[in-house]
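User: Could you go from structure to sequence for me? I need the amino acid at each position, not a summary. Structure tokens:
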């Protein structure tokens, strides 16, 4: 197996879809409720949008994934600290989305990657490694 590196950039798809879903809910909320129910719904929608933004910022903690020739992974955080990591079995591979759950020494990192967050070759290599090349234990 060849070693490879996946550099993770900012993707627009996650944020655009999340914002669009919140904006679609706004008119329905406005037309369906009034009074205190409307205020409660607007507060819940604002809290949901804030939580989505916070999760999107948390998702950007991992800036690079390195896979060595033995198929072992290490992740580089935005703080500059690298960790040896094991990809958990509950990670998912879909055609346009990768859900990565990394286990390091004492912590789990959850990360969603869309195709626009890295180049096509790195996406292909990471998808193939996730399906067939990663160590099981």
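Assistant: Here is the amino acid at each position, in order:
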């Amino acid at each position: 197996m060849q070693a490879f590196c996946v550099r993770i950039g900012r993707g627009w798809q996650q944020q655009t879809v999340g914002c669009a879903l919140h904006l679609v809910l706004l008119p329905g909320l406005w037309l369906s409720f009034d009074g205190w129910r409307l205020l409660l719904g607007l507060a819940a929608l604002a809290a949901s949008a804030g939580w989505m933004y916070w999760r999107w910022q948390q998702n950007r903690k991992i800036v690079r994934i390195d896979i060595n020739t033995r198929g072992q992974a290490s992740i580089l955080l935005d703080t500059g600290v690298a960790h040896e990591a094991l990809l958990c079995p509950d990670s998912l591979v879909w055609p346009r989305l990768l859900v990565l759950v990394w286990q390091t020494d004492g912590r789990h990192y959850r990360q969603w990657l869309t195709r626009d967050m890295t180049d096509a070759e790195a996406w292909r290599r990471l998808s193939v490694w996730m399906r067939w090349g990663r160590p099981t234990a």
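One structural detail worth keeping in mind: The chain has three helices and seven strands.
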